[in-house]
Structure to design on (204 residues):
């Protein structure tokens, strides 16, 4: 009887999609709050020191930058990637892509971008919209909070598991990325995120 109660309790916990923990300096996948799974592009790992799974936040960088002993190859394009998962029922992208894109092009949208991510005030340079994805390319108008990162960054908003998820990609000041290059990393990250969560959703 006790064993059956324990089994039911474990099943209930699994159904809650509790966040996981970063398994080590070479970790490439992680479950964040809300059951959203982060999967790193090739050459990238999840930083266990900065990532906060219960807060829905993951920080990714080249594996060799996180762990000097890592034998994983360097990515073709070096960037800093963050993933932030919103609160439950915060989804707002799917079905509203044109309106959300237009909002980000306003001064109010630029102000929101400046306070909703690592960094400060930004200038909006480019925006885009596709099915369940709105993108914005910005330039910081004040020094970024991440020392050593370039002022330009791509950001993408998408809905997963009833929550809005934000992906941000920044290059490094020592090896800055062009707008096209950083967009390539952003697209890779989105593909990884969608693939990881389509598998997760189909098994729950």
């Amino acid at each position: 009887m006790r064993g059956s109660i324990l089994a039911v309790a474990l099943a209930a916990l699994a159904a809650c999609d509790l966040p996981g923990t970063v398994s080590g300096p070479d970790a490439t996948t992680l479950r964040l709050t809300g059951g959203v799974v982060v999967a790193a592009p090739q050459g990238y790992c999840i930083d266990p020191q900065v990532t906060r799974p219960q807060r829905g936040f993951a920080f990714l960088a080249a594996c060799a930058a996180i762990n000097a002993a890592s034998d994983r190859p360097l990515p073709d394009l070096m960037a800093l990637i963050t993933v932030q998962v919103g609160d439950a029922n915060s989804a707002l992208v799917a079905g509203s892509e044109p309106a959300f894109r237009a909002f980000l092009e306003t001064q109010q949208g630029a102000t929101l971008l400046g306070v909703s991510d690592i960094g400060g005030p930004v200038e909006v340079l480019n925006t885009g919209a596709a099915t369940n994805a709105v993108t914005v390319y910005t330039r910081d108008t004040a020094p970024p909070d991440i020392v050593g990162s370039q002022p330009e960054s791509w950001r993408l908003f998408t809905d997963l598991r009833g929550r809005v998820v934000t992906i941000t990609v920044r290059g490094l000041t020592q090896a800055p990325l062009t707008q096209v290059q950083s967009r390539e990393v952003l697209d890779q990250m989105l593909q990884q995120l969608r693939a990881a969560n389509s598998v997760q959703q189909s098994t729950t």
User: Anything to note?
Assistant: The radius of gyration is 18 Å.
